[in-house]
Amino acid sequence: MQTIITEAILTGLATILVAFIGYLSQKVAVYLKEKGIAEQLESKGYLVDIAVQAVEQIYENRDGATKFEFAKQEAIKLLKNNGFEVSDVELNNFIESSVRAMKEGFSGVIVEDMPQPDIDVVVEDVEEEDVAPEVAEDSTIRESRTVQKEEK
Question: Judging by beta carbons within 10 Å of its beta carbon (0-12, 13-18, 19+), is residue 113 exposed, middle or buried?
Answer without folding.
Answer: exposed
